[in-house]
C-alpha cells in the first residue's frame, strides 16, 4: 500500500466516523425520541441535497459543525470530504423520512442493500436485467459525483419504500473516494462484490440488524 493510499484510507475513516456520529444523532432523535428538532433538521437536509456543501446556512451546524480539521477545505470551493459528507447526510435524511426503524445500519453496504431490494422487487435470478440492474449499472459507470447523486437519490427512495437500510459510514467513504478518479474502480469493485456475492435470505428482516459501530468496523478501513 502506497503512502498516498494509506493517507486516503485514513481520511476516509475519519470522515466516516464524523458522518456516523451525525447520522446516529439525527436517527436517535427521529426514531427513539420523535423529536421535533430532529424532524426539522432532517427536513432542512432534504432541501439542501442538490446544493453544494457549505452553500446552505441552515444546515451548517449539522454538516460542518465539528468537521475533522484535516478534511476542511481551504479554497473557495468545498473539499471533496465536505461535499461527500453533505451529500451522505442529505441522502440519509431522505432515507429516514417517515420511517419508524433505523435506516442507517452498520454492515449494509450499497451493493448488499440493492441486492435485497432486487429480490424484494421480484427481480430475476440471473441478475443481468431489469430496471434496478440498469440503474445500478448506470450509477457504477457514472463519470461525476453529480451523476452519482442523480442515480443515488432514486435508489435511496426505493430503499426507503422497501424498508431496507444502508450503512452511511460506508456510503460517505465511497463518495469521498469516488471523487478521485484513480479510486473509482476500487469503489465500483466494492459495490459489485456486495451486490453479486450477497445471498439474501427470503425471510431476512433488516429492521433487526444491529446498528452499532465498533472502532474495528471493516466498513471504515
UniProtKB/TrEMBL annotation:
NCBIfam families: casB_cse2. It comes from the Bacteria. Residues 201-221 are annotated as: Disordered. This is CRISPR-associated Cse2 family protein. Residues 205-221 have a biased composition (Low complexity).
